[in-house]
Design a protein that fits this description.
Helix content is about 60%, strand content about 15%. It is an alpha/beta fold. The protein has an eight-stranded mixed barrel, surrounded by five helices. Strand 4 and strand 5 form a beta hairpin. The longest helix has about 70 residues. About 0% of the residues have low confidence.
């Protein structure tokens, strides 16, 4: 055989091998690209389905919110109805917008033959048995009619012309809507699972084919490609697992979250009922968590929460449930809890472990925790009441000084009933503006002049008589009634002071207490200026008393700017209960505060307590150096007055000066201490 034919055959063979080699690489590349595209499509589909499920979940919540707001609007008082109608209008509009977005995202067509397929989304939207499109539109229409009817009542424009019987929100429409969205969520999930399974099956086929080709042709090329595919697959699985974990776990501590508790608590109760056992609900709260955040920072606070969660897990069995409700609030659900003594011993062991010192960056932290315990079926037979009763028991434990636990009891049940009745009575008192204003003067020890008068809230109940502020104010604060009570007190106090001012009666400045809740009301400054203008009281005759905690939170809530606005108008600001909080001295300056009020705890027995005397002297010298006036409250004896006078604290307020008085008694007290006018005496006789 000649050399030329050999070379020709060899060249053809090499060319064939090269062609086969590159063809194999192209096949591998095509398979890899196809696998990558499938993965991207799976992730995009998953993201799309997640978006659809979010919309469905939001629609379920909004449908319930519309029904709730409709009911609350019908049952609410007339002064609250405008706000409720506004919220209903917003919820209805958001429901309608989300529904349009849902139709756009799904691409559902009411004319599509797919609505006859019971496995399609169109079937849920446009066919039996759900007819979700019909009921969604019906719920929107019902909400719009209800809004129009109420707005017609408010404005008198007669916007709604239908009969009253057509205004009420149809509960059956709301229930059908909720059921439809639940079915739609299930249908979307089922479709997503089916598509994912098909894509995964196709992906596996490509994956194994790629392996076969690579093994036969180019193992050294396939290796990095296969690693990339595996990495993408693992990322997808990890992402799905991570999403499932985050949905039911707290991101910081790793404990189950409130959503998981809500979904599974009833199941736990049913299992306990079947086994005829007891179930203990232990609600925990850290006693000094805010102080830790304020003094050591949020990193220390987060570390304390993580350690507390780990100690909770270590203190209970694997079958028990540990939940973080939010902030520094935790719940432990202990199944098979046994008798009261068993629960008592278990609670002591848990608290003893949680209350052990925590070391953070060289600093020893003593967080302390309190716990409230409610037991199924003794204290309640449902999840909601068990949590409420455990919370009430926790409140009782905190009143004992913290670091302790308390069981829910009949006494607490009676207290709960009393608080519910008191809450109802407070609502009635607010509606009737039954809260009274008492006045307590502030005087100068040097010359006896009246430097101010403080307005204090009092409540004379029609049946129970005078209820102490320390009894009803905490309930009002917890229920969110303080802004309304505060406005009643401010209005009455300003009107009374304006009458005194017009009559020429000297009372110094009127001081009213204002809480952070009131200051967070967006229109508080407008309300204050309007009240002053209507009453005719100059702003300079009014001072607002705020506590140090308000100053700590002011930059987060916008209170600082509001206080500067109020002070710029001439209203004075006073720092109440000075020395008992954690306010920074940077806030104690003449540009923000006009007067400091020394807390009564430092004034009582000041003549016998050297430490209190030193504290009051230091505060007095600090205020004098900054050019800020001071007043000491709680002076009750002559000895205390003499000590304050010797220290240099001139202005005082307390029982030794005058008790809080109703407006008529206060008027008598102020009038009796007005300076007497000099009388002109006419001398008789002849002119010299």
């Amino acid at each position: 055989m000649s050399q030329q034919p050999v070379q020709t055959v060899s060249g053809k063979l090499i060319l064939l091998i090269k062609a086969g080699y590159w063809l194999a690489l192209l096949i591998i590349a095509a398979m890899v690209i196809a696998s990558f595209i499938l993965l991207q499509q799976m992730m995009a589909t998953q993201q799309h389905n997640h978006t659809l499920l979010d919309i469905v979940s939001t629609q379920k919540t909004l449908s319930q919110r519309i029904v709730f707001l409709a009911s609350a609007t019908g049952a609410g008082s007339r002064d609250k109805q405008p706000a409720l109608v506004s919220a209903l209008k917003q919820a209805t509009a958001e429901f309608e917008t989300n529904y349009d977005l849902l139709l756009d995202q799904t691409g559902a067509d009411p004319q599509s033959p797919a609505k006859l397929d019971p496995k399609s989304i169109e079937s849920v939207l446009f066919a039996k048995p759900f007819h979700l499109d019909y009921f969604s539109v019906g719920l929107i229409a019902n909400g719009d009619r209800l809004i129009s009817a109420y707005e017609s009542q408010f404005t008198g424009n007669g916007g709604y012309k239908g009969g009253d019987e057509r205004v009420n929100l149809d509960a059956s429409v709301a229930n059908a809507t909720l059921s439809g969205y639940a079915a739609l969520g299930q249908r979307i999930t089922a479709d997503a699972d089916e598509r994912s399974e098909k894509l995964l099956a196709l992906h596996r086929t490509l994956f194994y084919a790629t392996i076969g080709v690579i093994i036969l042709v180019a193992l050294f090329i396939f290796r990095p490609m296969s690693n990339a595919i595996l990495r993408k697959t693992h990322e997808l699985i990890d992402a799905r697992n991570s999403m499932a974990f985050i949905a039911v776990h707290d991101g910081l501590t790793g404990l189950h979250n409130r959503t998981f508790l809500t979904d599974h608590f009833d199941t736990l109760i049913k299992g306990t009922h079947r086994r005829r056992e007891r179930l203990a609900v232990v609600q925990l709260d850290l006693d000094r968590f805010k102080q830790i955040n304020d003094t050591l920072g949020h990193a220390a606070g987060d570390y304390v929460l993580v350690v507390t969660a780990q100690r909770m897990r270590d203190s209970c069995r694997a079958s028990d449930l540990c939940v973080r409700l939010g902030g520094d609030e935790f719940v432990m659900i202990l199944g098979g809890a046994g008798g009261t003594e068993d629960i008592n011993m278990l609670a002591r062991r848990i608290l003893a472990h949680i209350n052990e010192p925590i070391v953070f960056q060289g600093t020893t932290i003593l967080p302390g925790a309190s716990a409230g315990i409610a037991v199924y079926p003794i204290d309640a037979d449902n999840a909601q009441d068990l949590l409420v009763h455990a919370d009430l028991a926790l409140y009782s434990a905190k009143k004992l000084g913290g670091g302790n636990f308390s069981f829910f009891s009949e006494e607490l049940r009676r207290e709960l009933d009393y608080r519910k009745q008191l809450e109802h009575d407070i609502k009635v008192a607010i509606a009737e503006r039954a809260f009274q204003v008492y006045f307590q003067p502030q005087v100068s020890l040097t010359n006896g002049t009246i430097s101010g008068i403080e307005a204090l809230v009092r409540w004379n109940h029609a049946e129970r008589g005078m209820i102490p502020p320390g009894e009803f104010i905490p309930v009002a604060e917890k229920c969110g009634f303080m802004p309304e009570i505060g406005r009643i007190v401010i209005t009455k106090a300003i009107n009374e002071a304006a009458e005194w001012n017009r009559a020429g009666i000297a009372f110094g400045r009127l001081a009213v207490n204002v809480s952070g809740t009131e200051l967070r009301e967006h229109d508080f400054d407008a309300f204050l200026f309007e009240t002053l203008e209507k009453a005719g009281l100059p702003p300079q005759k009014l001072s607002l008393e705020i506590v140090e905690s308000v100053i700590l939170d002011d930059e987060k809530t916008g209170i600082a700017a509001k206080l500067r606005h109020i002070r710029a108008a001439g209203v004075h600001l006073e720092l109440d209960d000075f020395g008992t909080g954690y306010a920074s001295l940077s806030h104690v300056n003449p540009n923000e505060i006009d007067r400091l009020k020394i807390d009564r705890r430092f004034v009582q027995n000041i003549h016998e307590n050297g430490d209190n005397s030193k504290i009051v002297r230091a505060i007095t010298e600090l205020a004098r150096g900054l050019g800020i006036s001071i007043v000491a409250e709680g002076a009750e004896t002559e000895a205390e007055l003499d000590s304050l006078m010797a220290i240099g604290c001139d202005q005082v307020q307390g029982y030794s000066i005058a008790f809080p008085m109703p407006h008529d008694k206060a008027l008598e007290w102020l009038t009796a201490r007005m300076p007497k006018k000099a009388k002109l005496t006419v001398l008789q006789g002849s002119l010299a």
